[in-house]
Amino acid sequence: MFLWSSKKWSFIPWSELQLGNNRNFQSEVSLVPALWQGTPVMIKFVEKNVDTESERMLRNEIKMVKTLSHPSIPEYYGWGETEKELYLVMELLKGASLEKMRSTLKGQYAKVSELFYRCVEAVEYLHSRNIIHRDLKPSNFFVVKGGSSIKVLDFGVAKSFRANTTLTGDTGSYWYMAPEVISDGYVENEKQYDMKADIYSMGIILNELLTGVMPYAEYLEETPWQIANTVLRHNLRPQLVSDCPCLTEFQSLIQACWATDPESRPNISQVRNEMLQILKKMDIDVKDHNKGSCSLQ
């Protein structure tokens, strides 16, 4: 078990928030810096009854994050709702996403390895809570300024998973989406999927960080849907990393993670154990944020 103290979670009236002037628009979702009870926060909100899909995703995120507590999960303070807006209040993060750091991280294999290990810890925590993120990608892993701390973001399409759960339908970003998730819309019978879909995404991410090149960069003239179709029908994968320390170990781990058959992929605890062996071989010592956890099946 992951042992973390329960956190406070409350309804936060709009009147308690002191908004900043800068809005960062992400389609129909706005991110606004603010103060709440003297604490710098970020407000994520949507206008109700304007974009029903964005509203649905934010409601899902509110439902998902209210019980989460882990060093690799942002602090979420609460939520609120007015006649016109739905919003989520979270800690104000300073730093940059792995996507924005991709070019600067190129060739920094020790740094990449440590950061990816932190990403694995975050996903292991989610999976221990029976949560599938379903949209893992570099833009959803945030590197906190001044260190190697990672925060996993955006739980809008995350789902709780139980043994009798059936998950179907394509969700997330096509470059990082597992074949069994892509299948909706391309084949007559949707394939069911589980946490192994996140493992596939992690393999794509690790390869991207080690190469410093976005997935399928050589196919930029193709649409995301065309690439996804080729992944599904012809087992297309990004060009595998060919030059880095522990090359054989990294290649084996990546290929295991992005295996076509979900049953052939490791679980997230196995990925973490493999990364620990690689880090040890690279003489990198990391603190285990998930110490005391049980082995995931």
UniProtKB/TrEMBL annotation:
Residues 1-276 form the Protein kinase domain. InterPro entries: Kinase-like_dom_sf, Prot_kinase_dom, Ser/Thr_kinase_AS, Ser/Thr_Kinases-Pseudokinases. It comes from the Eukaryota. PROSITE patterns: PROTEIN_KINASE_DOM (PS50011), PROTEIN_KINASE_ST (PS00108). Pfam families: Pkinase. GO terms for molecular function: ATP binding; protein serine/threonine kinase activity. This is Protein kinase domain-containing protein. It comes from Galdieria partita.
